Structure formats: structure tokens, C-alpha cells
Amino acid sequence: MAVTHDAPYEYVPGHSVPELWRLSFQPRYWSYATMTLLQASGLRPGMRVLDLGSGGGDLSFLAASLVGPSGRVVGVDRAPEAIARATSRAAELGLRQVRFRQAEIESLVLDGPVDAIVGSMVLMYLRDPVVSLTRLVAQLAPGAVVAMLEMDAPSARAVPVVSPFERALGGFPQDPGSDLWQIFLAAGLPITDLQAHSRIDAAPTAESCRETAVSPILVGAWARKPLSFQVAA
What we know:
This protein is α/β, with parallel strands linked by helices. The protein has one domain: 3-Layer(aba) Sandwich (Rossmann fold). It has seven helices and twelve strands. The strands form three sheets. Strands 4-3-2-6-7-12-9 form a seven-stranded mixed beta sheet, sandwiched between helices. A three-stranded antiparallel beta sheet has the order 8-11-10, with no helix packed on it. Strand 6, helix 5 and strand 7 form a beta-alpha-beta unit. Helix 2 runs parallel beside helix 3. The longest helix has 14 residues.
């Protein structure tokens, strides 16, 4: 993938070792929701997939399991630390059809055909999700798939209320989960399927079931680029 040199978006959590671990844990925690969306969107052997904000590579690896050895998955991330970790893990897993490239999502220019664009909790870090998604969709061929998962942060809570947990939920620059269908429509994508997933977990150190964390609802949407591509006014 080739990129221009516009100013990048800011990924506030950074890319420390603990954050890279979290980026790897997150897709595994939501693996059921992620795989459900990827399968529903029609990922199949031989497809060429672009993973936006690939982090530790786990979403790319799930996509690779569906496109198989004859397919191709390219994960893009702005952080060289994330690219290095994901590349190392792909080699360890023997996934030769998976590659990772450093790139800025907001200025990404596709240099080859792509059958599907996927992403998990990445639009929330972009300055303008509609503008960025529209730019990418405009570069796709008609019929290409776009499948995204985003968090509806206000739906998460801890019981009882835990201040650090509440502060963390308020620290995201965007909250596109509840507006994902509107983002798709504004980017010229008529939604084929809209999903919602949630989890309820006991706190790791809880002494009773009264201490729980209700994970935020994860909203998934997928669509195909229409033959007559038109951005909403």
C-alpha cells in the first residue's frame, strides 16, 4: 500500500508493551463477534483483504483463516512497534498470506485491488470517520466488502461503579458504535447487515458475583460497494 503524507491521526493510548498486549487481547476477547461479522460479510478463500489499524494482527489472522492460503491479508497500522510484533507473530503462525505495512489510514492510497476492507475499533480514533471511510470506499471496485466493528462506549459499566473504569470510557476521541449505520450511509454504503454483541464478566479479583463489568456493546456492520456509488449529501 502507498500513502501520502498528510498529518496523522493521534492514537492516544500509545504503543507501549502493555498496550500492544491489550491490542492483541481485545480481538481474542471479541473473537466470536468478529468471526460472526467476517463470515456474514462473505469472506471466502482467495479474497484480498485490507485490515485497518491492524495492531497486534489478531483480526488479520482471523481473516486469514477464512481467505486461506490462496487469499491475501494486508494489515496496516501507523505504529512500527505494532507492525514488528504482528509480523513476528504471523511468521510464528506460518501465515505466509498475511503481511503488515506501516501506513496512515487517513491518507491511505490503495496500490492494488482489494476485495474487502475490515476493521475493529479503529474508526473511533480517526478525526473524521466518514471522510476517511469515504476515501477508502471510493478506491474500491463495485461489490467490494466493507465490514467494521465499533464500540458503543456508553453501554459499558462496572457494578459497583469504579472511577478508573468510568474515566477510561470517557477517554476516546470518537464513539462511532451507535452511529455506525449512519457512518456507512454517509460513506455511500447501504448496510446489508447490522449486528450487536455484548459480554458480561466477573471482575478478575471479585470475591462475589456482585462485582461485575458489563462490556460495551460492540456494533458490527457490513456492506458491499454499490454499482452506483454515491456519497450521502
